[in-house]
Amino acid sequence: MSKKKKEQAKQAELENQQLDESTEAAAEASAKANDKEKEQALRDVLHIRRTAKEVKRYTVLMRVTGLIAVALVALIAIGYAIAYFYNKYGSFTIKVNKYDMVNQGLSLSETPDFDKTNSMLTADIVYDMTNISGEDLPDNIDKVNGNHNGRNYIAYTFYLHNSGKDTITYEGDLTISNVTKNVDEAIRVAVYTNGEKVVYGKTKSDGSGKESDCDEEFITANQVMHTKVEDFKKGDTTKYTVVIWLEGNDPDCVDDIIGGVIKMQMDFKIIENT
Q1: Which pTM was predicted?
Q2: Rounded (5°) CA angle 236-237-238
Q3: Which of 100, 131, 151, 237 has the least C-beta neighbours within 10 A?
Q4: pLDDT tens sequence across 90-149
Q5: Element (H, E) at 94
Q6: How far apart (Å, rounded) are the C-alpha atoms in residues 217 and 244?
Q7: How many Cβ atoms are within 10 Å of 218's Cβ, its own excluded?
């Protein structure tokens, strides 16, 4: 083979080698590109999955937050409702058993003419009541019908009437339904029955008996008094006035009871009819 042909063959071999190297490099580049694409695709899938989880977690969080918000609103609403009904029914309420009212005609009224009868009456609340002396109460305090509170006392006059056909015997109980900060230790309750006054107070804290300004002690820690009226004929009416105040001369009337709350109720029921 001539020298020229040898050079040409050598040149062709070199070109083929370069072509192979270029092809191999292109293949490697293509492979790398494909790997990058696959890696990016995998990243995209993982990102989508992560995003989906985040969306789900966010959705769950928002639902939980919403439920908590609803629960808080409900609790606040319940709190306001309790406060509303507590205030609505005042510091002192009077009730007659509804069965006795419907079937026996025992009913309540704020006026002696009984133009409007009820099974329950409610005295207005006195807020921030401070202590006074029982001697400071008005002399005619049992001469005014319905609510006639003073600045520092609760006064309520009502009438119990037998509008039925039978002669009955009824009982009444004045009880403490709620009290805080031991404010009942210094509370006085005057009950006027057809003008006759009896003042009730808790037994002295040392257990030595009734306070000097009281006629009677509370029957129990929660029961102020009990009354029983027999031979209550058709058309008979009993007038009651209940006065509640904080007695400043009581040794238990101390700063510790400031902010205390007391709530009382008086319940009447028929125990016998003839």
Answers
A1: 0.69
A2: 130
A3: 151
A4: 478 989 988 787 778 899 999 998 878 888 999 888 888 899 999 999 999 999 999 999
A5: strand 92-96
A6: 15
A7: 21
